[in-house]
Structures are given as C-alpha cells and as structure tokens.
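Translate structure to sequence.
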C-alpha cells in the first residue's frame, strides 16, 4: 500500500500584482510543513507539484525545510488549481464592483470570497458547462487521473508528496468519501471541503489493491497559530 500526502501550497500573495507567488508567510509555512513531516519520520520517494508558480515554490521551499529529502521534483499539470478567473468571469450576474475585486491590488477578501462562492457554485452545478473552458466534471476527471498517476509513482510501501491547491484536494476528498458520483452531491461535498483547507496542511490518501481511500484531511495542528491561513 502506498501513501499520497496532498499538501496545499503556502499562502499566496493576495492583493499583489501577481497572486501566484508565495508570500513571506507562505515560504515559512512551506518550510515548516516539511520540517513537521520530516520530524514524524516521513521520507517521500516522490515529490510532485502542479504547474502553478505557488505550487512549485512550495515544493522548493519544502526541500529547504527538510534537507534530508534529496529527490527530484516532478511536475504534473493535473494538480493545477481551478481557473477561478475563468469561472468568475463566466458568472452572468457579474457587476463592475465584482470586476474590481479581480484587479491587482484588490484586498477585500470577504467580498472576493462571496463572489468566488457564488461563481463556483454555478460552475459546479454542471448546468452551464459550455460557459467554461473546463467543466466541473472535467476537473474532477483530471484530479482522478492525478491520483492514479501519483499512486503509481508512490508504489507499494512508498510515499508520494503532492503539492497542489485547495480545489484539487477538495475534489480528491469529495471523490473518496461516500457521496457517490451524483453531480449535485459531489459538488456540494467539494464546496464544503474547499472552504476549510488550510495553507500547507496535509491530506493523506492510501492507495492499495482496492483503490484509493481517504485517510486524513487537512492536518495542520502542528502549525504555529500565526501560520494558519486559508488563501
């Protein structure tokens, strides 16, 4: 049986010109997450990250936090985050005030979260798939493929660390719980998981002959209080 450790990237740079860059806190979170895992005796045999900058930087900082982890980094685009800008821009009730929330420098996190929740709820409903470059069903399918690939990379009695984002982690958790494949239930489960995932938290999935099973979700108790963030 192999183990996948799904790590959410460190805090990104909300409100900056380029969101897809780790903040200074995100760097500390990433290093600390690796220190904690190494302290528990975790020695990954594979380190994978999605194709986004914040995911790559998190993986790189994790290697700085656990120098004994001497292994190459593999890139797998299946673990990219949902294109939230495409999802939000397809929301038909978008106002000028909403569009302003998408501009670099906007720091109204509460209003942005409300807009994101409404827009992703429409996207995940599956009723308007032609409005999006990637439907919710296609997103779920690529994460499922990512789990399979990472599981094969981990292999028997091996551990793969996968650095990704909240959306793919929530998709994995929704698929691996007992909600079934009914789109409405899957979307509701995805939204609930996605709302509470902490930066640099760890979600564990075991992969064996009977398939993948969710073992733990959103582990972050060992992170210091100042390092617990959600974006």
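Result:
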């Amino acid at each position: 049986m192999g183990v996948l450790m799904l790590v959410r990237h460190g805090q990104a740079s909300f409100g900056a010109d380029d969101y897809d860059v780790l903040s200074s806190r995100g760097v500390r979170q990433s290093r600390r997450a690796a220190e904690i895992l190494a302290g528990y005796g975790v020695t990954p045999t594979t380190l994978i990250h999605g194709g986004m900058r914040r995911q790559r930087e998190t993986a790189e900082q994790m290697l700085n936090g656990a120098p004994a982890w001497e292994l190459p980094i593999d890139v797998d685009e299946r673990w990219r985050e949902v294109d939230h800008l495409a999802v939000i821009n397809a929301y038909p009730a978008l106002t000028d005030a909403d569009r302003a929330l998408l501009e670099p420098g906007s720091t109204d996190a509460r209003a942005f979260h409300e807009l994101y929740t409404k827009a992703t709820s429409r996207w995940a409903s599956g009723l308007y798939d032609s409005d999006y470059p990637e439907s919710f069903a296609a997103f779920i399918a690529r994460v499922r493929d990512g789990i399979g690939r990472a599981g094969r990379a981990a292999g028997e009695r091996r551990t793969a660390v996968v650095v990704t984002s909240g959306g793919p982690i929530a998709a994995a958790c929704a698929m691996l719980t007992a909600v079934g494949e009914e789109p409405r239930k899957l979307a509701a489960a995805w939204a609930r998981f996605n709302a509470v995932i902490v930066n640099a938290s760890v979600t564990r999935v075991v992969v064996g002959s009977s398939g993948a099973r969710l073992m733990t979700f959103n582990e972050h108790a060992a992170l210091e209080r100042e390092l617990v963030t959600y974006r």
